[in-house]
């Protein structure tokens, strides 16, 4: 509380348009004239007392609410405990439903991506086999690429809807691997059955997987490196050595090299 004598009150002058800075809210003042100072002084003291009392009440007003809030919480604890399982169950249902929906979407997306990757891998393998077939130098035409979908002891199954029984099957190197024996919708069965092998003016039998030319005349004049083909002109391999006579002395046999790869993923079916 500031008591100011009006005779000594001096305020700083400000230029036109300039405002004085406001007094802080913590300060109050009374102007007491010298002509009648006692009544005015008593009035100022009363105002100061009221201001101090109200300010204290404002500062302490919130304190009485703390016990009430604590008591309300204590009284509400049983109800809150009863509501907790139901609330947790509801949250679990909502979150679980959202999680399962998201999981199903991710699984479907993952399945689609796996299918796309598998198709891409099949396309890449087919392109690599085609490049190898073109680069083998055997001038093979009129073939259809087919992917292996299953394997067995004596052959494999190809995904080739256009195949027919009796069609020769070549590997990526253009070498004879087997023959189509059965078709079933979009697939065909290839067996490693014996095929006639021609080498020069002599003929014998070759079974894919065994790769031995048998049934040659014992006195044949074949040498290592001679080419062996099927009756249709497909490559079977080359002689690994000169034919060796069998135990009966009437026939001879010889193993082959440069034969078909029977563990490939893509083959070519001749039309």
UniProtKB/TrEMBL annotation:
Q: Which residues cross the membrane?
A: 64-83
What's the protein name? Cell shape protein MreC
**Keywords in UniProt for this one?**
Membrane, Transmembrane, Transmembrane helix
